[in-house]
Automatic annotation (TrEMBL), chain A:
<dbReference type="GO" id="GO:0006310">
    <property type="term" value="P:DNA recombination"/>
</dbReference>
<comment type="similarity">
    <text>Belongs to the RecO family.</text>
</comment>
<dbReference type="InterPro" id="IPR022572">
    <property type="entry name" value="DNA_rep/recomb_RecO_N"/>
</dbReference>
<feature type="domain" description="DNA replication/recombination mediator RecO N-terminal">
    <location>
        <begin position="9"/>
        <end position="81"/>
    </location>
</feature>
<protein>
    <recommendedName>
        <fullName>DNA repair protein RecO</fullName>
    </recommendedName>
</protein>
<dbReference type="GO" id="GO:0043590">
    <property type="term" value="C:bacterial nucleoid"/>
</dbReference>
<dbReference type="InterPro" id="IPR003717">
    <property type="entry name" value="RecO"/>
</dbReference>
<dbReference type="InterPro" id="IPR042242">
    <property type="entry name" value="RecO_C"/>
</dbReference>
<dbReference type="InterPro" id="IPR012340">
    <property type="entry name" value="NA-bd_OB-fold"/>
</dbReference>
TrEMBL record, chain B:
<comment type="similarity">
    <text>Belongs to the RecR family.</text>
</comment>
<dbReference type="GO" id="GO:0006281">
    <property type="term" value="P:DNA repair"/>
</dbReference>
<keyword id="KW-0479">Metal-binding</keyword>
<keyword id="KW-0227">DNA damage</keyword>
<dbReference type="Pfam" id="PF21175">
    <property type="entry name" value="RecR_C"/>
</dbReference>
<feature type="zinc finger region" description="C4-type">
    <location>
        <begin position="57"/>
        <end position="72"/>
    </location>
</feature>
<feature type="domain" description="Toprim">
    <location>
        <begin position="80"/>
        <end position="175"/>
    </location>
</feature>
<dbReference type="GO" id="GO:0006310">
    <property type="term" value="P:DNA recombination"/>
</dbReference>
<keyword id="KW-0234">DNA repair</keyword>
Length: 236, 198
């Protein structure tokens, strides 16, 4: 791999873990260079000027260098004000961080995913209706990485009818069936990225979950399980 | 240098310690073997019995060789005040800095959804049992001010609310790195006294 030097690149920290005595290894999403891993040396010391900015959900500008796959973080500074994520919105943020980590291959540039991600965080911080934000993010993310789904026609290329019942198949899309779990109107809502009511949202969540699981090939989304346990503890 | 045999093994085992590189590991090994065999044997024996006998305190999950740690067993401490921290090192930091006379609860980490670390992994079942038992009057959240530390504090505050227990958060903003162990005693003491109800 050739020497990379990136200077003041807009980015987000997706995840970080402690490394050795005073360093961090961080998964980052950059605007122009995609997702990859950096090592931030000596940042877990009281004197470090970079340490305080290595936090998830904070828009930053960062500089990196390095010849190997593991790049070295050389500079980081705040870029824009951070969206204020609390409670469920914060947990949702962790979830979309994990999605991005799974669905973007290292060093595969996706400026449009960066934009989707940035918008999703800002919307999560500004609404009480988190689910539509998550569904739209999932749909657009899958589309951008080449797993786009068409929801307005069924597996036989017939237009989806709002009043009919359908099953969902992650490869072929809606499949008309009397015993189907989902209303045609839910697929049309997904296609339009607009969810009129709770029933539609509940069905949309199941459909997206099965689409995502299909593409993860059996890899579990850790955040999904943890979040459901957190919710069990926090609400009686 | 090629490391072989027992000496090589000893040096590479010492390298596993935080902050110890090959150079200092070599120095330690030579010192113990050349100058202080007695000390080496004592160290080995202490290490062995400490690793066998030290476990989590049944009440607060800090490291102890007894069922209850020294702090939990101390009858003069107020067991209705529970200070929640991320690590045993934080217990020491608070003990040194603040005039806190309650007891602790050690999480050994924080919520980290991407690592699969949820409420059970940080002992919140045990903490919830204590809240449910009704003998906790105030819970002081002294987790780090990192995003994960804040998420953890928030969840524990929600749990406290469920059992009508007062929860307060220590007033450290976002200092360097946000980790409790980096805060000097004066600042920590200040943060402790300036805690706010959440
Ligand atoms: Zn104890």
């Amino acid at each position: 791999m050739i020497e990379t030097v990136v200077s003041l690149q807009p980015a987000f920290i997706l995840h970080h873990r402690n490394f050795r005595e005073s360093s961090l290894i961080a998964e980052i999403l950059t605007r122009d260079f995609g997702r990859f891993t950096v090592i931030a040396k000596g940042v877990r010391t009281p004197k470090s000027k970079l340490g305080p900015f290595i936090r998830p959900f904070v828009p930053v500008l960062l500089s990196i260098a390095g010849k190997s796959e593991l790049k070295t973080l050389t500079h980081i500074e705040p870029w824009q004000s951070a969206p204020k994520l609390h409670d469920l919105a914060l947990y949702s943020g962790f979830y979309i961080n994990e999605l991005v980590t799974y669905f973007l291959h290292p060093f595969d540039p996706h400026p449009e995913v960066f934009l989707l991600y940035q918008n999703a965080l800002s919307e999560l911080s500004n609404t009480l209706e988190l689910e539509p934000v998550l569904r739209v993010f999932e749909l657009n993310l899958l589309t951008q990485v080449g797993y786009g789904l068409q929801f307005d026609v069924d597996n036989l290329q017939h237009p989806v009818s709002p009043g009919k019942k359908y099953c969902f198949n992650a490869e072929s899309g809606p499949v008309e069936s009397e015993q189907g779990d989902f209303a045609g109107s839910t697929f049309l809502a997904l296609e339009a990225r607009s969810f009129p009511d709770r029933t539609t949202l509940t069905e949309a969540k199941k459909i997206m979950r099965s689409a995502i699981n299909f593409h993860l090939n059996g890899k579990p989304l850790k955040s999904r399980e943890v979040i459901s346990k957190i919710l069990k503890h926090s609400h009686s | 240098m090629i490391r072989q045999g027992l000496l090589g093994q000893l040096i590479s085992d010492l390298c596993a310690l935080p902050g110890v590189g090959p150079k200092s590991a070599q120095r330690m090994a030579f010192y113990l073997l050349q100058r202080d065999r007695g000390g080496a044997i004592r160290l080995a024996e202490t290490l062995l019995s400490a690793s066998k006998k030290i476990a989590y305190c049944e009440q607060c999950r800090t490291l102890t060789e007894d069922k209850l740690c020294r702090l939990c067993a101390d009858k003069s401490r107020d067991s209705s005040m529970v200070c929640v921290v991320e690590s045993p090192a934080d217990v020491w930091a608070v003990e040194q800095a603040a005039t806190f006379k309650g007891v602790y609860f050690v999480l050994h980490g924080h919520l980290s959804p991407l690592d699969g670390i949820g409420p059970e992994e940080i002992g919140l079942n045990l903490l919830e049992n204590r809240l449910a038992a009704g003998d906790v009057g105030e819970i002081i959240l002294a987790t780090n001010s990192t995003v994960e530390g804040e998420a953890t504090a928030h969840l524990i505050a929600e749990m406290a609310k469920k059992y009508q227990v007062k929860a307060t958060r220590i007033a450290h903003g976002v200092p360097m790195g946000g980790e409790l162990e980096y805060i000097d005693s004066g600042t920590l003491s200040h943060a402790f006294n300036g805690r706010r109800q959440v």
